[in-house]
Amino acid sequence: MKIILNLTMLCFGYLGYSQSILDSYIQTGLKNNEVIRQHNFDINKSMYALKEARALFYPTISLNGSYTKAEGGRTIDIPIGDMLNPVYSTLNQITNSNAFPMLENQSVLINPDNFYDAKIHTAMPLLNFEIIYNKRIKTQQTTLQKIELEIYQRELVKEIKIAYYKYLQSVEGIKIYQDALALVKENQRVNQALFKNEKINRTAVLRSDNEVIRIQANLETARQASNNARSYFNFLLNQKLDAAVETDQSEAPPIEVLSENTQNREELQKLTQAKEINENISRLTNSYWLPKVNGFADFGIQDFDFEADKNSRYYFAGVALEWNIFSGNKNKWKLKQVEEDSKKIISQTDNVKQQLLLQFQVSQNNLKSALEQFYADKNQKQSAKKYNDDIIKLYKEGQAIYIELLDAQNQWVNAQLNTNISLYNSWIAFAELERANATFTFN
């Protein structure tokens, strides 16, 4: 009880060797787990999305070219003959020559015929709040993916620990039944000898034979349970189900102090990150009212009949402004939706805080109960062993009947089983408390 109540002691727990074995298995599980690999794929995808968002700040450069062949359609009429022919006629009369020929009116196709245009087009955003907030959102979404990965990793660590403790529990159970089988077989031998010497009746022999059969059946059940526990443990490590598991038992229960640390749980960090993302979505929605300014520049060459000279070269540059004035209140209602999401996240955060605190308190109480049960079973185990040793001596001396011997042996076996169960149940409870408090440290 002093150990249970005085939770200011440091953890002695498992021996360092045992802890290193379990830590090694945990690292193997974290490395081989397929779900973690899938989470890493999602994180990589988010990183690429972030790089894509950053790329929006850079200019885009493209090579554009076109060639047109046209005939018919709309035209532009230019009365050049009507304007210049009277002048040219007068000049010819003055100069007494035909130096100024008569001109015909021109009709020019709007669609250029046999015309080419090749240019390098460059465009770059100069002021655009949408891509600014989009980049921030992508950054936060990447962080959110990493937090979700940490949540799963902590859950996996807990499951690996529990599976390992259950396997150790099953292995120790097999040893207990093996010792019990040796014990009942010795009783069987002694009873057969006593029966031959007419010291006891056949009932004791038959009962001892039945005890051998019962313990053998229990041993086989324990072995199958151990195989199942080993298979599940290897499944969590993504290894062959029948792979051997290295074990090391310790009689020391967990007594480490875990001060309440639920405020640092990744679940709350995830909600905090979701709140920040929602705030940036709100800013992104409000940026609809802000102007967008883009710059562009074209450097190219254009002419008819594929001619190219210094007059064919050109550049064309400018600045474009876009400022939304009215959109039918579309963004107003979108902003209302974002506000409702924000209220929902705040409510979820308050609820999750209470849930995590409840989980910690329940896990802590379960650990205290498991430790109390372990120490009670340990004391009972010591008493049962002493009682069994005494009855065995009395039985061999003929001062106790077989029923008393059988009862003492059953108490001894059950006390060992109960102590084994309560020991690893306390470790399982500690693993659940460690998960509830998010105290496991990743390398």
From TrEMBL:
Statement: the UniProt record of this protein carries the keyword Transmembrane: yes
Keywords recorded for this protein, A-Z: Cell outer membrane, Membrane, Transmembrane, Transmembrane beta strand, Transport
GO MF annotation list: efflux transmembrane transporter activity; porin activity
Cell location: Cell outer membrane
Example of a GO cellular component annotation carried by this entry: efflux pump complex
Primary location recorded for the protein, binned into one broad class: membrane
Keyword Transmembrane helix among record annotations: no
Protein family according to the UniProt entry: Belongs to the outer membrane factor (OMF) (TC 1.B.17) family.
Name this polypeptide is given: Outer membrane protein TolC
